[in-house]
Write a structure and sequence with these properties.
Oligomer: single chain
Strand order of the largest sheet: 1-2
Number of strands: 4
Function: Required for translation of the mitochondrial OLI1 transcript coding for the mitochondrial ATP synthase subunit 9.
Number of domains: 2
Subcellular location: Mitochondrion
InterPro entries: ATPase_expression_mit
Protein name: ATPase expression protein 2, mitochondrial
Strand content: under 5%
Shape: globular
Largest sheet: 2 strands, antiparallel
Subunit structure: Binds to the 5'UTR of the OLI1 mRNA.
Radius of gyration: 30 Å
């Protein structure tokens, strides 16, 4: 342990002003996009603190704590699974010269004599690229499928093209995520693969456009719409949904909007799609603006405010006997949150999952004892990862992050017996929760600096009211530790950015253990990235100690937790420079203090 590290506590980082508590009432505002109410923020912190105290003594927490296991670091340099996977990727297909310029492989006068037999043969070819290339180069002949191919064969073509696009997308994601493991041509690989992926999408889009000129099944339309929607081409997705709705009005016995299509339609038109969702003025996910729906867009069949969409869905659900669906529920949750209707949202969650939020009493968030999960819960309505994210976004949007976390923890306690959250999904959920708490604190800081006069931002005590910003993140982080057995690098980056100095120092041994654990370093190349993340964490801890003049503790910390001799030397050089600057500052401070004393003495003599 560091010398006296157990006694170190400062929840404020790089802050030197104080906001008097008498000004709290000036911040009693409704917290939404760009502003944060200090009063609401304090309420969130206090609720999380109270919940955490109860959570520590609960059976669920005891069960989670019993699952924690510690393992020693035993590096295996010869097990390079990731390196082998990257080396096995075949990049030869990137040199397809016909990808951007489709050239017909058949003369125009052959029509269907050779085209259709080739299609029949390639439908079952193991190499999907052959089918894709033939269709891409002969889009004008696709209309000949009608009457010559069965509906099953047309559906099979669509499914195989979707699979081909998905395989390229997964390869792109894998290479992009691990590009630092590749050689010096990494940028070329990623750029080429991105370009190829976009070109394949455009060609597949042209094929699907040609297929839409013949009679497709509702199942085919749903797959094609999902293809565009999942790639964030929302304009195309809503255009096809509109086309299906037109067909449904003309041929109701053959077409209707399924729950999946309704979920996509509501998600786009009410702008609850998480890709352009904002929390405290910051986007959660990045999305190319060209793929968004213009706010002036008019849906051809009816209005598209949230209330209208819900009423239309309820009417269609009853008319077409649609089953209940969690995909629709998650959109409704986000919709209620985006429109600030928390009362309706509380009732919605209570009726579906038996979790009540007692806003007027002192019970807080609790599970209804009379709610029989097995009897009341349809399998289709069992909560999942997207439900948790929707609840987090909906309440967080309205400055009620504590309620979101309490509800979601109860859902995990009561409904995760089916393990709908695995290790990866659990980490993704908590990354979003931590990011929301950090952004909430940033919004609070901006609001205070904007609204409080400069001459009222300091106090003789030197304590800052913004310490609550870090304490809230610390509370959420400590809550996440109960669910996440192994932190990943994204979580650690958030902790470096938003945690208090105390939490950074307290968590260093566990972060070190995590980043050097054998299960996290089975691949030798992975060690390099984990070591860099650990060194960044150690560096931030050193900076916090050095700012308080604790240079010896910082030096001991470097020696204990940094293995690279080069990094040790770099950090110690940084400490020497900071120590010199700190000493000069102290000398100036002492000189000013002596000058004040001398001035006072002169005044007494006078």
């Amino acid at each position: 342990m560091l010398k006296s590290s157990s006694n170190v506590y400062t929840s404020t980082r790089r802050i030197s002003f104080f906001v008097p508590s008498t000004r709290l009432n000036e911040f009693n505002k409704r917290q939404l996009q760009n502003n944060a109410s200090l009063e609401t923020f304090v309420k969130n912190y206090e609720e999380i603190q109270q919940y955490s105290a109860k959570f520590e003594t609960s059976q669920h927490a005891a069960k989670l704590n019993s699952m924690e296991q510690a393992s020693e670091f035993k590096f295996k340099p010869n097990v390079d699974v990731l390196a082998d996977a990257l080396n096995s990727i075949n990049f030869k297909f990137l040199h397809d010269t016909n990808e951007k310029t489709a050239v017909s492989t058949l003369p125009d006068n052959t029509k269907n004599e050779n085209f259709l037999p080739k299609i029949h043969f390639l439908l079952y070819d193991t190499d999907i690229r052959n089918l894709y290339n033939l269709l891409k180069c002969n889009v004008n002949k696709i209309t000949s499928f009608e009457g010559n191919l069965s509906s099953y064969e047309i559906s099979l073509i669509i499914k195989r093209l979707l699979y081909y696009n998905d395989s390229i997308g997964q390869r792109l994601k894998f290479v992009t995520k691990n590009k630092h493991y590749l050689d010096e041509e990494v940028d070329h690989y990623v750029k080429k693969l991105n370009s190829f992926s976009r070109a394949v999408y455009q060609s597949t889009k042209s094929i699907f456009n040609a297929l839409s000129k013949i009679e497709l099944s509702l199942y085919d339309y749903e797959n094609i719409i999902l293809f565009h929607y999942q790639r964030n081409y929302l304009n195309k997705a809503i255009e096809l949904i509109s086309e299906v709705e037109k067909k449904a009005s003309e041929h109701p016995e053959q077409y209707q909007l399924t729950n999946t299509l309704w979920a996509i339609k509501m998600d786009i038109l009410s702008q609850t799609n998480t890709n352009f969702w904002k929390i405290y003025g910051e986007t959660i996910y990045k999305l190319n603006s060209s793929n968004k729906i213009n706010f002036k867009y008019t849906y051809p069949h009816h209005g598209h405010n949230f209330q209208t969409l819900v009423k239309r869905y309820e009417a269609e659900k009853e008319k077409n006997f649609l089953p209940d669906s969690t995909s629709v529920l998650e959109v409704m949750i986000k919709g209620m949150g985006k429109h600030g209707d928390l009362t309706a949202l509380d009732s919605f969650i209570e009726s579906n999952w038996g979790i009540k939020n007692d806003r007027n009493g002192d019970k807080g968030v609790y599970f209804l004892e009379h709610f029989n999960i097995k009897k009341r819960m349809n399998g289709l309505l069992w909560p999942n990862e997207n439900i948790l994210i929707s609840i987090l976004l909906a309440y967080g949007k309205n400055g009620d992050l504590a309620t979101a976390l309490e509800i979601n923890n109860l859902i995990l306690d009561k409904y995760n017996c089916t393990n709908f959250l695995d290790a990866s999904n659990t980490i993704n959920y908590w990354i979003l929760a931590l990011r929301c708490s950090g952004l909430y604190g940033d919004a609070l800081e901006k609001q205070l600096l904007k609204d409080v006069p400069q001459n009222e931002l300091s106090d003789a005590s030197g304590t800052s009211l913004l310490e609550i910003k870090y304490r809230l993140f610390d509370s959420v982080w400590q809550m996440s530790e109960k669910y996440v057995n192994h932190f990943n690098r994204d979580m650690i980056k958030l902790k470096i950015k938003y945690a208090s100095s105390h939490e950074l120092l307290r968590g260093l041994p566990k972060v070190h253990c995590n980043m050097t654990e054998i299960t996290y370093n089975k691949m030798s190349l992975n060690l390099k990235v984990n070591e860099a993340a650990l060194n960044s964490y150690v560096r931030e801890c050193c900076l916090e100690l050095a700012r308080r003049g604790r240079f010896l503790d910082a030096s001991q910390l470097i020696e204990k937790f940094v293995s690279s001799e080069q990094i040790v030397n770099e950090l110690k050089e940084m400490l020497v420079e900071m120590q010199e600057a700190y000493a000069r500052k102290r000398v100036k401070h002492d000189e000013r203090k002596r000058q004040i004393i001398d001035d006072d003495d002169d005044f007494e003599l006078w």
